[in-house]
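I am writing to request your help with a piece of structural work I have in hand. The matter concerns a single protein, recorded as an amino acid sequence and a row of backbone structure tokens. Could you please explain, in whatever detail you think fit, how the structure tokens follow from the sequence? Thank you for your consideration; the sequence and its tokens are set out here:
>
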Amino acid sequence: MAKLIDLLTFSGTLGDMVGCVGPNGFYVRKRPKKPAKPPTARQLETRAKMALVTSFLAPLRELIYLGFAQRGPASKAGAMGRAVSHALQAVVGTYPDLSIDPALIRLSRGNKDRLISPAVRLEGGVLRVTWIPHGNAMNAFGDDTVYAVAYHARDGVVIAGTDTRDAGEVHLNVSSGPPGSRLLVYAFAAERDGQRCSDSQFLGEITIP
């Protein structure tokens, strides 16, 4: 139903037209039509994959904005689009029984050196993410920021921490997680100016006892 704003402007639907008032003024677009044919099996599969991927990545969006922004235009939509495009390759199974292989997910992409021998272990309520520090190189600096991430995908909970590449470890407090929580652990490095990142690395799955 349309709402009359003045004699020449309206908002809402009027016949097969839609009136909109945006930041740049009033404009009219054609009302989208419902498809005449039901979706094909291939279309249903594609939609299911997209829904699965976007749901998985949504809680991680702030990290994705950082990790993918350096590849192309530095926009949030562009960063998320690149992450989604990559994550679609992580969908496994046969429709409708689809799932995500967390080892194939990337939170960042870039040409900085990845962490050397990263590992993770749980000590009490603390996850210790460790790696071998190394001196300055062409694509790695001691003051690079390393991001460590523990992700509880089922509940959409993200726990993240940072330290320098030279520090060799980041501690994440996961003591508040309920027993049996399955945490997916990732890490990546970002240059001091935040313009370049390494490819993220999947360090494994940790279950809170």
